[in-house]
Write a structure and sequence with these properties.
The chain is α+β, with helices and mostly antiparallel strands. It contains 29 helices and 25 strands.
Length: 930
């Protein structure tokens, strides 16, 4: 027994010893794996110091200050911009003093940070001064958003450019879908021939005399352009106004852009006769000379290039107004629109070709560099000096200076210097997406150029020996293949880096640009060379100019065909609502973090960037999927009436997120309607429209629908019988477009429901198919949710409206006034019949607006007035109109209006007196008969 016990003890000891050995071995392996992981992690961290680029740090401080200045100025009370400037510069002075003390104390790192803070404070003050401080006699202070007669005198500082007229007939200005009407603002495409220039004001007519004035004004002249040049002193009689703020969320803000350009006024002249040249430009005026050269160049291209003269003028002279909109559309959606706007690409091509041409001559190197610098500078002035052109020209000048001094200037430092100069000249460009894309793209190209040698060189001596044994032709072909691959990789890098901001600001993702840009890379420089040769030899020989123009035209034919072919490819581009601002900011912050933290051998690997892009895309996708789980906002039905001028566009969003759009159009300005409707939908994150309803066959209610069909996924289109029977050409074209896109067309009539969800009901209350006019056939819709009702009445008027009122429609909480608040739409009658608390008018109101407003407000009596809100113009209190958003829930109706860049709550109507509560309590439920 004793021996048996000893055996058991010995076996247990052996087992424990074996387990201990296994554990020790596992611990050693785990420790080794941990050490290997630490070593690999150390390999992911940069050990060598960052290259010394002092101007990069200075440029970063200037960018930060230029961006923070206007934001900080917005926190001050109105009129406090001067104090904000003084505060920034006082802080900069204190920081400079502290910097000097730290330098003497030998604390160089802290001194450097304090110096950068001082530079940022100076930049912040300068940006606020440029954007917010104007002279007291600026013309804009005497103007409002309502046009008023004005007579001014000043000097033309930006040459006249012709705005193309809309094509007659159809649905829209850009692609033959036009309708008669007026312009929305100075930046909309003209409905009839018009031109635009900028005038530096000197005097304004006041009473019986003239008084001094300052500021700049954008002058829009209808009709044939007058014969004026830059430098002319002109006298203008017209109607003056200020640019309007964005009327819809997500829409471009012309007021802020005008403030950034320090051009706060618009003067509209009825014809060229309203502009009189008081004095011609001085004979030595450089502006007039450049204006003549620009016009002469456009005339030469028009004479010798042929049908694509507009494309050539855009490519060489930056004159995009001569380019048909249909031609520009293909370049826009394929991500190659940068070809049509003079940018750093064009300046770089000009400098490269000119330097190669001068190198082939016997001209001294210093003189050749000076010639390149002078020519690129003149070209910058000729094409207007946009920010990308200025940036590229500064880079060329710095490169020429470095070459003349026999030194090599770091390109990144030169790019930072260009950024500093640009932001000192125009601080507001820090918010301009064109400037952002220009500098980011150039930085990517600089980085690709820095890493290209390490990618192209082969470290293996055997591979180099094999390469040397190949024939010269084979080596040449392989070299061309590597160069083409390098161009493709560089283009992909630029696309990958810039795609988030393009998607966020332009709502467009163009994967086809990855293929198309490398294909166009050799063709665009070739077309530019032929075009420049045409311009140069035209004064010498017409035959040579014609030959060069024909070669330029042939090259542009290929460019145009490639763009059109790429635009027709399936999946070539997609319109998107765009990523969130935090995601875009995080993307660029992550790129900077990777650049400063990873070693060079990791940065040259495409897998590093692909992994970073995939990881951040995963973060965005996870955030989008998780957002509904953390959204604590109550689910309510929202109806947004977009501000489209004299037009209509309504977005209905149910509590479960389904989207119905009712009408989308504007009188004579489909571009403005497209811009406003797209902005409202994208701002709400909408990518799909479940049902698109067209109330009747009037183009100011549907001439933007073709663009919505292009930009959004549409489930079905609902129209009336009268719309389907209409013989209008615009209606036939719209229906044909819907059929081509294979979108189901649903016919609706009175009593029909338009599918939405169980929390929101949309039904047709009225339709008079036998009415005499299009307006009288309008569908009347009821949007019902949580016991609340909103009526959409289209352009209902005349006998059809009288019959609707006589039928005794149910009461409602909100009504969209018929026919844009027209006095002929029986405002008092329909208000008494429907008894709304709120009346929304889609438009600026007509000449009888005061009468219409009083009719709606007093229809129920003085004890229970309604609240009237309109989306356009200026109301009686002086507040500008904007989009109106109505929220329907069981607690009541909440109305907000978009004004000055944000949503503002509209005060509710006064509470009814006790005597009127009985009438309110007897209101029929929303489910009653219509």
């Amino acid at each position: 027994m004793r021996h048996a016990l000893h055996d058991v003890v010995d076996r247990c000891g052996d087992a424990l010893a074996g387990c201990g050995g296994a554990l020790a071995s596992a611990a050693r392996r785990a420790g080794g794996a941990g050490i290997d992981a630490l070593r690999r992690a150390r390999g992911l961290r940069r050990h060598e110091p960052l290259p010394r680029r002092p101007l990069v740090a200075v440029a970063a401080a200037v960018v930060a200050g230029s961006a923070a200045g206007p934001v900080a100025a917005g926190l001050w009370p109105p009129g406090g911009a001067r104090w904000a400037v003084l505060g920034c510069w006082a802080a900069a002075g204190v920081a400079f003093c502290g910097w000097g003390w730290l330098v003497r104390a030998g604390r160089s790192v802290a001194a450097a940070w304090l110096l950068l803070g001082a530079i940022a404070a100076v930049a912040a003050g300068w940006s606020v001064a440029r954007e917010r401080l104007f002279r007291a006699d600026d013309l804009a202070w005497s103007l409002t958003e309502t046009p008023a007669p004005v007579a001014v005198e000043g000097v033309v500082v930006e040459s006249l450019r012709v705005l193309p007229a809309a094509a007659p007939g159809g649905l829209g200005a850009e692609s033959g879908w036009g309708a008669s009407g007026g312009r929305s603002d100075a930046h909309d495409r003209a409905i009839e021939p018009a031109s635009e220039c900028v005038v530096a004001l000197e005097r304004v007519r006041a009473g019986g005399g003239w008084r001094p004035a300052s500021g700049r004004a954008a002058v829009v002249v209808t009709g044939e352009p007058p014969a004026i040049l830059c430098g002319c002193r002109v006298r203008i009689v017209g109607r003056g106004l200020r640019p309007a703020h964005a009327a819809n969320p997500g829409e471009f803000d012309f007021r802020e852009r005008a403030r950034a350009l320090r051009c706060l006024s618009i003067v509209r002249a009825r014809s060229g006769d309203c502009i009189r040249v008081v004095a011609p430009p001085a004979p030595w005026s450089p502006a007039a000379l450049l204006d003549r050269l620009r016009r002469g160049g456009a005339a030469v291209l028009d004479a010798h290039v042929g049908r694509r003269a507009g494309l050539a003028a855009a490519l060489l002279l930056g004159s995009r107004e001569a380019l048909p909109a249909d031609d520009a559309q293909a370049f826009l959606v394929t991500g190659t629109v940068h070809i049509l706007s003079i940018s750093g690409l064009h300046v770089g091509i000009l400098a490269f070709v000119l330097s190669r041409a001068l190198r082939a001559t016997s001209l001294r190197r210093s003189w050749a560099l000076a010639a390149v610098a002078v020519v690129t500078g003149l070209y910058m002035l000729l094409v207007g000096g946009e920010t990308p052109v200025v940036r590229a020209t500064l880079l060329v000048w710095l490169s020429c200076l470095a070459a003349a001094l026999g030194r090599r200037s770091p390109v990144l430092n030169a790019l930072a210097a260009a950024a500093i100069v640009v932001l000192v000249w125009q601080p507001a460009d820090v918010f301009r997406v064109g400037t952002q894309l220009s500098f980011v793209s150039t930085a990517v190209l600089v980085g690709a150029g820095a890493f290209a040698p390490s990618l192209a060189a082969s470290p293996d001596p055997i591979e180099r020996l094999i390469e040397g044994s190949r024939s010269p032709l084979e080596r040449r072909l392989r070299r061309l293949g590597r160069q083409a691959a390098g161009v493709a990789v560089t283009g992909a890098a630029v696309w990958l880096v810039t795609a988030p901001v393009v998607a966020a600001r332009f709502h467009l993702v163009s994967p086809v640009g990855l293929v198309l840009n490398p294909l166009l890379a050799p063709l665009v420089p070739l077309a530019m060379v032929w075009g420049f040769l045409c311009l140069v030899v035209a004064p010498v020989s017409t035959w040579l100019a014609a030959g060069c123009g024909a070669a330029c035209d042939a090259t542009l034919v290929v460019v145009e065909l490639l763009a059109e072919w790429a635009a027709r490819l399936p999946g070539a581009y997609v319109w998107v609502a765009g990523p969130a601002a935090w995601w875009v900011a995080g993307w660029y912050a992550g790129l900077v973090a990777i650049l400063v933290s990873l070693p060079r051998e990791r940065l040259v690997r495409p897998g590093t960037w692909a992994a970073a892009a995939a990881a951040w895309a995963g973060v965005g996708l996870a955030a989008a999927l998780a957002a509904p789980l953390f959204d604590r906002r109550p689910a309510v039905a929202e109806v947004t009436v977009a501000a489209l001028g004299h037009g209509c566009g309504v977005v209905i969003r149910s509590p479960t997120g389904r989207v119905i759009v009712c009408d989308a159009g504007r009188l004579g300005a489909p571009a403005a309607a497209r811009r406003g409707m797209s902005a409202v939908l994208w701002d709400a994150g909408v990518g799909r429209i479940d049902t698109l309803v067209v109330s009747h066959a009037d183009t100011d209610h549907f001439n933007a629908v073709p663009d919505l069909l292009e930009r959004f996924s549409v489930g079905r289109v609902a129209v009336s019988e009268a719309f389907l029977r209409s013989d209008a050409e615009a209606v036939r074209r719209l229906l044909r477009l819907v059929y081509e896109r294979r979108i189901p067309v649903v016919r609706v009539d009175a009593g029909d429901d338009i599918p939405c969800d169980h929390l929101c009901r949309v039904r047709v209350l009225h339709h008079d198919a036998a009415a005499a006019t299009d307006n009288e056939t309008s569908l009347v819709l009821a949007v019902e949710s949580a016991g609340r009702r909103l009526l959409l009445t289209g352009d209902l008027e005349g006998e059809s409206l009288a019959r609707f009122v006589a039928a005794g429609p149910d009461a409602c909480d909100v009504i969209l006034a018929p026919h844009h608040g027209s006095a002929t739409s029986l405002p008092a009658d329909i208000a008494r019949a429907t008894r709304p608390d709120w009346v929304v008018v889609s438009g600026p109101g007509g000449s009888r607006w005061g009468e219409v407003r009083r009719a709606y407000e007093t229809a129920r009596g003085a004890r229970r007035p309604a609240r009237v809100v309109k989306t356009g113009g200026v109301d009686d209190g002086g507040d500008p109109g904007g989009a109106v958003r109505v929220s329907l829930d069981a607690a009541g109706v909440a109305v907000r209006q978009f004004s000055a860049g944000r949503w503002r709550s509209v005060p509710p109507p006064p509470a009814p007196r006790p005597s009127s509560r009985v009438a309110s309590a007897t209101r029929p439920p929303p489910g009653g008969a219509g």
